[in-house]
Amino acid sequence: MSAGGDLPLLDPRTGAVRGSCAAADEPGVATAVARARRAAAGWAAATPQDRGRRLGELAARIEACVADYVRAERAGTGKPEAEASAEVMACADLFRFYAGAARAEMTPAGGHRISGHESWIRWEPLGVVAAVVPWNYPVLMAGWRCAPALAAGNAVVLKPAETTPDSALLLDRHAAETLGPDVLVTLTGGAETGRLLVRSTVDAVAFTGSARAGANVAAGAGHRRVSLELGGNSPVIVLPDAPPDTWDKIASAVVMNAGQSCAAPARVLAVGSAYETVVDRLGAALTGRRAGVDFGPLNNSRQVDRYDDLVEGSSAKLRRQGETVLRTGETNGFWRPACLLADLPPDDPAVLQEVFGPVVTVQAADSVDEAMRMANNAPQALAASVWTADLPTALAMVRDLDAGEAWVNCHLVQTAELPHGGRRASGTGTDLSVLALAEYQRPKTVTVRLGG
């Protein structure tokens, strides 16, 4: 089965066609995987020092070409320049971090474990990793997936989202110049190209995207290693003694990347008397964020439809909505304002489903225990946050939250050194930190009989 042909690329700020990219068909996918396979042996044979040096050179190349990456990112996402620039620099930092992590020692101590024998463990790369990344953070998610896989000694076939291939193609060129030919191969196309890649002869699949697509990836990958980072619909528990800057901090996190973040604050659970305060103060802070000034557009028409269906279909009795500031030519873009929905039933679609836009719901909880039950009852378990001046209470709540990452009095605060990963419907596996290296390696036990 083939995909083939060209895919139109749209500017989400205007809705206008800005170009096209090739959609790899089955022979194209096979060729890309074969190229990576040929490069994999040499890359795996390189010393960790050499791999680290070359990954450091790639980080430096990204930093030197930050303006080019920012233009590529903005072309497909419409992000504000400062936001795109921060993400490009974060991607460079990831490659620099894993340049050092490539030389880290993860192997448990060897030695005398069996009488008359000596044993140790070799950590070996998997071979060729397919990295399928989404459109919300094109170059940053490429870094999250590619950097640890490369540091672990694998070659990578990178498949960016069909709407945002620009920065991945730039990364492909710079990787060839610093890492060597075909150590990182970028393959453009839509969903069918992704399916073909998952079902190809790669040794592992790293996927970031929706829960439905993640289930398809897991089914297509079969017995091969799979790392999945899926949706969040993340809860935010606010107690009456929340710090004064809570509203501003949460509002900024809600509209970051136009709310198109898997770990974005989606469901605010206000405990006791905090409910009215949350609605008033968070509502004011959120409606003060303007689409077109403080954050960019949604990525595509499907996201616009999802936003409209969930917001307009909500039975919320209270709605606080911001404004959109458009410029010439942007009237047909994928813009939607920030929105707070309150006084809504627990089975409202905007509560049960992840809007993946600049929207937050507010629900009342009579007690901390009830808020915890509400936080943990969603299928997703990616991230959560707690807002209170009572640190012992916050730490006890964090202990009981079923989430891969939890914050206290902050949200979406991340760094390369700290792991990130979901539970339940939010996926499996670990991104970031040295722990991510284990996603792309496998252990081999070696035992030698002494004497004789």
Provide structural commentary.
This protein is α/β, with parallel strands linked by helices and 452 residues long. 39% of the residues lie in helices and 21% in strands. It contains 14 helices and 19 strands. The chain has a seven-stranded mixed β-sheet with strand order 11-12-13-10-9-15-16, with helices on both faces. Helix 8 links the parallel strand 7 and strand 8 (225-229). The longest helix has 21 residues, at 81-101. It is globular, with a radius of gyration of 23 Å.
What is the tally of helical segments? 14
Structural class: alpha/beta
Spans of at least 5 consecutive residues whose pLDDT stays below 50 are none
Apparent shape: globular
Q: Biggest sheet: strands, sense, closure?
A: 7 strands, mixed
Distance between the termini: 57 Å
Q: Output the strand order for the largest sheet.
A: 11-12-13-10-9-15-16
Helical content stands at 25-40%
Q: What integer is the average pLDDT?
A: 96
Query: Whole-number radius of gyration?
Result: 23 Å
The percent range for strand residues is 15-25%
How are the SSEs placed, and which strands pair?
Layout: E1 6-10, E2 17-22, H1 26-45, H2 48-64, H3 66-77, H4 81-101, E3 117-125, E4 128-132, H5 138-151, E5 155-159, H6 166-178, E6 184-186, H7 191-198, E7 204-208, H8 211-221, E8 225-229, E9 234-238, H9 246-255, E10 265-271, H10 274-287, H11 301-312, E11 318-321, E12 339-342, H12 349-352, E13 359-365, H13 368-376, E14 380-381, E15 383-387, H14 391-400, E16 405-408, E17 423-424, E18 427-428, E19 441-449
Parallel strand pairs: 4-5, 4-7, 5-6, 7-8, 9-10, 9-15, 10-13, 12-13, 15-16
Antiparallel strand pairs: 1-2, 3-19, 8-18, 11-12, 14-17
Helix pairs in contact: 2-4, 2-6, 3-4, 4-5, 9-10
